[in-house]
Every structure is written in structure tokens, then in C-alpha cells.
């Protein structure tokens, strides 16, 4: 089971108006276990290392589609979600993390949003690689 976490400084990027989830190009990239996420220090894509490579995978990741931003008033919960990203006919090894970010075209200004830790390394050989996003989406926040 994957564990999803938000980058703390990514939250700051939302409040600084660096992120507009509805209109920005939001991507997900895959990284190996050589990357060590730091929720308190990593703010931009330039902090992310060890992106995987292989057949069917393009550097900088995949653009998310069918993005939604929904608020549930009974639970005071805001959810950012998208369609499950799929890379087709991939041959990959060592996939350990999925990192979600806004792609501005420059690593130093592309804000990180969240990441998923798959808890172990995954590999594919000429098959699709799909991330099944949880019901809580990419990010879920509750106003308390």
C-alpha cells in the first residue's frame, strides 16, 4: 500500500499563488529509492533526484488529466484529484516514488505538491504502469 504525503513548502506555494491546480500543468514523475523526499525542505522540482528512465517513460513525467478540485462541506474536506496516470508499454525498474508537481518549464520554479511512497521497488517489462490514486486524491485537506 502506497503512502501519500504533502510537501510542506508545497502548501506555501499554494498560498503564494504559485499553484493553480485547476489551470496549471500538473505532472507526476517517477523516482527510484535513491531519492529521499524531504517534506520540510523540498519546495521545487530542482530538489528531486533519481528520476527513473526506461522504455515508455518520458523525463519530467506524465501530465495529469481530468483534474478535479472538490469541497465536501459536511466533512470540511478539500480534495485535489485526477485520473489515474498510466504509462503504456513500459520497461522500468526501481520505481519507488511518484512525485506530483506543477510544471512551469523550469525545475527551479516548478512547485512540488505531494508524493507517494510505494514502500518497495517496482519494475515492468513491456507492460503498462498505472498509479491508482487513492480516494483521498493527490492531496486532501480538512478545515478544522
Give an account of the 3D structure.
The longest helix is centred in the N-terminal third of the chain and has 8 residues, at 8-15. This protein has one helix at 8-15; strands at residues 3-6, 26-31, 62-63, 68-72, 77-81, 86-102, 112-130, 139-142. By secondary structure, it is mainly beta. It has one domain.
Task: Provide the descriptors you would attach to this structure in a database record.
6% helix; single chain; 1 helix; 144 residues; globular; mainly beta
Number of helices: 1
Helix content: under 10%
The main pleated sheet reads as: 5 strands, antiparallel
Order of helices and strands: EHEEEEEEE
- Compute the number of strand runs: 8
Gyration radius (Cα, Å) is 15 Å
Q: Measure the end-to-end span.
A: 27 Å
For the biggest β-sheet, the strand order reads 1-7-6-2-3
- Strand-residue proportion: 35-45%
How many structurally independent domains?
1
Helix/strand structural class: mainly beta
Mean pLDDT over the full residue set: 96
Given as residue ranges, the uncertain stretches (5+ residues, pLDDT < 50) are none
Q: Which shape, going by the Cα principal axes?
A: globular
Amino acid at each position: 500500500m502506497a503512502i501519500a504525503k504533502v510537501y510542506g513548502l508545497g502548501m506555501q506555494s499554494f498560498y503564494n499563488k504559485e499553484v493553480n491546480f485547476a489551470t496549471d500543468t500538473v505532472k507526476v514523475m517517477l523516482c527510484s529509492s535513491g531519492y529521499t523526499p524531504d517534506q520540510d525542505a523540498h519546495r521545487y522540482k530542482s530538489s528531486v533526484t533519481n528520476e527513473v528512465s526506461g522504455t515508455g517513460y518520458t523525463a519530467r513525467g506524465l501530465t495529469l488529466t481530468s483534474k478535479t478540485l472538490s469541497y465536501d462541506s459536511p466533512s470540511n474536506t478539500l480534495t485535489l484529484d485526477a485520473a489515474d496516470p498510466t504509462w503504456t508499454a513500459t520497461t522500468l525498474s526501481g520505481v519507488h516514488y511518484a512525485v506530483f508537481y506543477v510544471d512551469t518549464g523550469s525545475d527551479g520554479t516548478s512547485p512540488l505538491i505531494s508524493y507517494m511512497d510505494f514502500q518497495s521497488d517496482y519494475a515492468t517489462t513491456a507492460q503498462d504502469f498505472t498509479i491508482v490514486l487513492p480516494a483521498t486524491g493527490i492531496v486532501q485537506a480538512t478545515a478544522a
